[in-house]
């Protein structure tokens, strides 16, 4: 399986999850959404369930197949020895409706959990399966618009203030004082549904009224709780994730700002568009805002029970018209390249995937490629290239550091 050169056009795959928007990805990628399907994610990578296709304009091949046929040339022997695959998955997301609350395990715990479920004979696609692979799933997101997310528990004083201010939560104060974050979270996650509804129904109805009267902003937990229930006939079977909207930090990132999510930190995307880069894994322990399986004991085992001060990164200017967002993992790194009638020069040290999110450019390398907005390229290790833009062009690049 041989392609000419080391710089290739790359075509990713759109995922039509229900929470996605209808127009952002079609506009970015340049296709008509004639079936009016929700377009949630655009995947660029070698994940076997939705591998990208790369092409030298005469021959096309799935990226995972190309890597398998020649790992040393495509991802380097070092990366193959360490990870056995391309260790990252690169995405563009359009979040219209809130995603499920998630916690990701450490690499060690993921391997233990996967092996235990394999030994128990649980099918890999079973809805109650927690571990789909033996890998961890750290991730970083860089906002493409104003972006809202939940990230980690509030710090102690802030969470106590929430329990005081929300009258329905006053009864939980002694529990938090005595049992800390774990005692509080375990209590609400194990609560019988009838008690959940009794406690939260008056709160949800109040937040719906307050949002309707413009008394809330997106900085308020109540705004998101009301969004969740708007248009529903009755407030019943209330998702336990509603507690988390009050207990976690609500974070706003402006375009170009980034947030890293490490193992154990509970989080959920609320609204907006972003570039997301993650380890090549599908291990998710859910904590609500979803009809999918929630394994509370497993969730509690892997959740980081401490207050978090969210770190919204502006990125470090590293020269060469590039900004670097530091991520404390060996699986991936990300650069934002911003050009305005100038150029960026580099040599790929790993397999790099790049997407133009604004404007276009020419990539001069062993194969010269014209890159338009929404188009992506894959660049093999050792390739020296120069990106030139006559006007404004913004690109995001994923690589193995």
From TrEMBL:
SUPFAM superfamilies: RmlC-like cupins
Claim: Isomerase is one of the keywords in the record: yes
CDD domains xref list: cupin_PMI_type_I_N
Domain of life: Bacteria
EC number(s) from the headed UniProt entry: 5.3.1.8
Residues covered by the Phosphomannose isomerase type I catalytic domain: 8-155
Keyword Metal-binding among UniProt keywords: yes
InterPro entries: Man6P_Isoase-1, Mannose-6-P_Isomerase, Pmannose_isomerase-type1_CS, PMI_typeI_cat, RmlC-like_jellyroll, RmlC_Cupin_sf
UniProt keyword annotations, A-Z: Isomerase, Metal-binding, Zinc
PROSITE patterns listed in its UniProt record: PMI_I_1
GO molecular function, one term: mannose-6-phosphate isomerase activity
Enzyme class per UniProt: isomerase
Needed co-factor(s): Zn(2+)
Swiss-Prot/TrEMBL catalytic activity: D-mannose 6-phosphate = D-fructose 6-phosphate
Family: Belongs to the mannose-6-phosphate isomerase type 1 family.
Protein name: mannose-6-phosphate isomerase
Underlying gene: manA
């Amino acid at each position: 399986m041989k392609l000419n050169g080391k710089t290739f056009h790359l075509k990713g795959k759109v995922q039509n999850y229900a929470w996605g928007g209808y127009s952002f990805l079609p506009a970015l990628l340049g296709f008509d959404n004639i079936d009016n399907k929700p377009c949630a994610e655009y995947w660029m990578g070698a994940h076997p369930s939705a591998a990208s296709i790369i092409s030298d304009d005469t021959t096309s091949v799935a990226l995972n197949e190309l890597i398998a046929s020649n790992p040393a040339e495509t991802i380097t022997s070092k990366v193959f020895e360490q990870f056995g695959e391309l260790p990252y998955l690169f995405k563009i997301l359009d979040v219209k409706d809130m995603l499920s609350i998630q916690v990701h395990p450490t690499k060690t715990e993921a391997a233990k959990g996967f092996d235990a479920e394999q030994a128990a004979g649980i099918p890999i696609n079973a809805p109650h399966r927690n571990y789909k692979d033996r890998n961890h799933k750290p991730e970083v997101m860089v906002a493409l618009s104003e972006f809202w997310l939940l990230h980690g528990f509030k710090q102690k004083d802030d969470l106590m203030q929430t329990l005081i201010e929300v009258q329905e939560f006053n009864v939980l104060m002694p529990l938090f004082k005595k049992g800390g974050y774990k005692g509080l979270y375990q209590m609400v996650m194990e609560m019988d549904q009838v008690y959940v509804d009794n406690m939260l129904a008056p709160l949800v109805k109040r937040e719906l009224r307050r949002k309707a009267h413009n008394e809330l902003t997106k900085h308020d937990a109540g705004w998101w709780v009301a969004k969740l229930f708007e248009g529903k006939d009755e407030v019943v079977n209330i998702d336990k994730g509603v507690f988390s909207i009050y207990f976690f930090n609500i974070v706003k990132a402006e375009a170009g700002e980034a947030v890293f999510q490490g193992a154990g930190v509970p989080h959920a995307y609320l609204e907006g568009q972003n570039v997301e880069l993650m380890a090549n894994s599908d291990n998710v322990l859910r904590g609500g805002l979803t009809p999918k399986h929630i394994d509370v004991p497993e969730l509690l085992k892997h959740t980081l029970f401490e207050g978090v001060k969210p770190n919204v990164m502006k990125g470090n200017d590293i020269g060469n018209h590039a900004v670097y967002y530091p991520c404390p993992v060996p699986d991936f790194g990300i650069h934002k390249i911003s050009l305005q009638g100038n150029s960026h020069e580099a040599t790929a040290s790993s397999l790099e995937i790049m997407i133009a999110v604004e404007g276009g450019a020419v990539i001069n390398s062993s194969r010269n490629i014209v890159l338009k907005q929404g188009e992506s390229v894959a660049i093999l290790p050792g390739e020296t290239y120069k990106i030139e833009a006559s006007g404004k062009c913004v690109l995001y690049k994923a690589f193995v550091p």
